[in-house]
């Protein structure tokens, strides 16, 4: 039997109160007056729509809109993509607690306000308050509400009458990135989130429009300040330039002739392609890719110096061109065997197997380089789930293909090292996957794998998008071992 994988951010289901939301509004004034003032870092149970109950939360930021205070709250034990702005009527103020000493130190130093916590009628339109459906997706709830289809892409493309026919696979010339002004230089710093200023913990982009989709961001991304007040940031799906409105995007599209990401198309199988982009040669694209990715990546470091990275953009082709589905980046050199730095499947394409496909692609490149690889840490909750799944499948596939040599018993012996060599998965990850599959046992002084037929069948049943090495046109810059030492399929 396949062991059920634990949900990494499975919330602690602390049921705080059964009282319906309405009763909070009629809170006794005497209680309110005796409560401490609300500041960033305060803890208070907040009614969470998707859980349909009150959940412990921390106030990250406070703002005032037309006389109404709003509180950006983080639900403790939930992923930050669920953080949202709420009004006080969603809070159980009876249990309001002052900031703990650790949260006060990490709270914003220049933006701490104290506000009275008397419930106020909500006057702000719901779109700016609690109904952040983008955030309302956690692992168990799925990510189905994070995007919706837009007609703008069709109108854009018909305006420009730039229907594409699938060209033959060639090395497209690199884009002329000079047409897009780079955003203000911010050095090579990063936006690592832990302990970061509270500003970077608050989602700053309301909605993006990309190709056929409107997508709700999950996290903060350092787009220029003036974009944070736009109801929608319009992004060119081919060069990733960001515009303040649809007209600006339309004007841009009259000049931007791209119908695919810049760089070389290195893989094509049917309508699926990969484009390889050098972060040094296509700085603007790489920079825009990082900004877009950061909207969905919380704890990864965002490098402004994109020179050390290659970017692999996964696209799907149709009559309008090669639409971005996701990407992964990779260090050109890694002393820690990293073969993937960041990975993203854009929300409209998630949970369809593209993440698995990109991970397989990253290991295929490692095999061609004659290297063992591992993803850069830390992994996100969704990243960990996807990697566990990939590692398990790759290892079971290797075990299935492995036949006993002449003279060997029916039980072929295979070391962790062998599995690592066959799959290009780092030894530590092989071991973690075997443990996660719960198939490794210590028996009579040695480790044995005990695998049921069910487990094999279950993994083989999966109909997956797979990397076909015949469709890959790529040679590594420097291969450390002969590529044929690894199996690339
Ligand atoms: N809930 C439960 N399991 C999930 C979910 C989910 N929401 N998403 C992925 N998985 C697991 C499943 O086990 C799935 O296997 P299955 O198809 O057998 O069920 C497996 O992951 C692979 O799923 P895919 O459909 O191939 O993955 P997807 O295209 O959705 O991409 C990714 C996964 C890239 C992690 C995506 O969720 C994403 O972009 N998330 C936001 C950015 C992020 O967190 N990136 C990883 C950061 S770590 C790093 O960059 C090294
Ligand atoms: Zn463009």
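-> sequence recovered:
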């Amino acid at each position: 039997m396949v062991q059920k994988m634990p949900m990494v951010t499975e919330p602690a289901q602390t049921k705080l109160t059964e009282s319906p939301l309405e009763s909070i509004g009629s809170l006794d004034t005497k209680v309110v007056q005796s409560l401490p003032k609300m500041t960033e870092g305060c803890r208070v149970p907040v009614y969470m729509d998707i859980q349909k109950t009150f959940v412990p939360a921390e106030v990250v930021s406070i703002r005032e809109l037309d006389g109404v205070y709003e509180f950006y709250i983080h639900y403790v034990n939930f992923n930050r993509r669920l953080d949202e702005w709420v009004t006080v009527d969603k809070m159980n103020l009876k249990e309001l607690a002052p900031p703990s000493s650790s949260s006060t130190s990490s709270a914003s130093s220049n933006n701490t306000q104290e506000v009275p916590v008397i419930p106020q009628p909500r006057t702000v339109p719901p779109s700016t308050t609690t109904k952040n459906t983008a955030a309302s997706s956690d692992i168990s709830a799925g990510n189905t509400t994070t995007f919706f289809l837009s007609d703008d892409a069709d109108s854009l493309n018909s305006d420009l009458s730039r229907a594409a026919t699938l060209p033959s696979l060639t090395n497209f010339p690199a884009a002329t990135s000079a047409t897009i002004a780079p955003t203000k230089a911010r050095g090579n710093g990063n936006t690592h989130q832990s302990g970061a200023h509270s500003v970077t913990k608050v989602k700053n982009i309301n909605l993006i429009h990309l190709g056929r989709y409107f997508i709700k961001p999950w996290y903060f991304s350092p787009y220029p300040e003036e974009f944070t007040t736009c109801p929608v940031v319009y992004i060119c799906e081919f060069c990733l330039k960001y515009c303040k409105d649809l007209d600006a995007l339309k004007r841009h599209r009259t000049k931007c002739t791209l119908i695919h990401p810049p760089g070389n198309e290195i893989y094509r199988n049917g309508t699926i392609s990969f484009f390889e982009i050098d972060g040094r040669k296509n700085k603007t694209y790489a920079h825009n890719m990082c900004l877009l990715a950061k909207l969905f990546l919380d704890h990864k470091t965002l490098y402004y110096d994109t020179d050390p990275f290659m970017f692999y953009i996964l696209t799907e082709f149709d009559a309008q061109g090669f639409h971005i589905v996701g990407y992964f980046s990779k260090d050109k050199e890694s002393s820690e065997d990293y073969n993937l730095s960041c990975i993203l499947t854009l929300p409209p394409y998630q949970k369809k197997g593209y993440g698995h496909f990109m991970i397989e692609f990253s290991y295929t490149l490692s095999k061609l380089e004659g290297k063992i690889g591992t993803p850069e840490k830390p992994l996100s909750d969704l990243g960990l789930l996807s990697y566990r799944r990939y590692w398990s499948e790759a290892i079971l596939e290797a075990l299935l293909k492995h036949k006993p040599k002449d003279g060997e018993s029916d039980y072929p012996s295979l070391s962790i090292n062998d599995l690592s060599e066959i799959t290009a998965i780092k030894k530590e990850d092989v071991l973690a996957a075997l443990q996660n599959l719960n198939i490794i046992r210590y028996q009579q002084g040695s480790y044995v794998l005990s695998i049921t037929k069910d487990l094999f069948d279950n993994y083989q049943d999966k109909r997956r998008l797979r990397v076909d090495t015949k469709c890959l046109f790529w040679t590594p810059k420097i291969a450390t071992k002969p590529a044929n030492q690894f199996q690339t399929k």
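The chain has a mean pLDDT of 78.
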